[in-house]
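Write out the 3D structure for:
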Amino acid sequence: MRETLTKALYSSCPIIYRNRDAADAENRTQMVWGFQCGSGWFELLLNLSQAIEAIAEDRKRQGISEHELPLVNQVKEKFGELRVYMKISGPGITELINEAQLDSTEICDCCGKPGEPVSVYGYVLTRCQQHIDEPVT
């Protein structure tokens, strides 16, 4: 994902992406590698992240300590689908992730236009006709 979009996600959802640069291995997440998916899924990922962030904010207002708030461990593409793995989850989050994962199979991971799962250089990716031959990045 492009760096400007990555920064937008991090600034929009500081609670759920809080430990991406943690110095200690115990608290660090796989987000140290960034978003391992195409920029075409930015809007989908922004909507999902903001929904999870709202749950985290609500739990914070209820007095839940920071180390118990929802925390994203990794975001990547796998088999043409968006995958979001949580280090700390909570009620309703799995359903939101499952819905976004399903939606991602109809969105080109390069541009965000309608797409479908296709085989590209031996990888299953979700692409529109314009980006069907784009190299895997």
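The mean pLDDT is 94.
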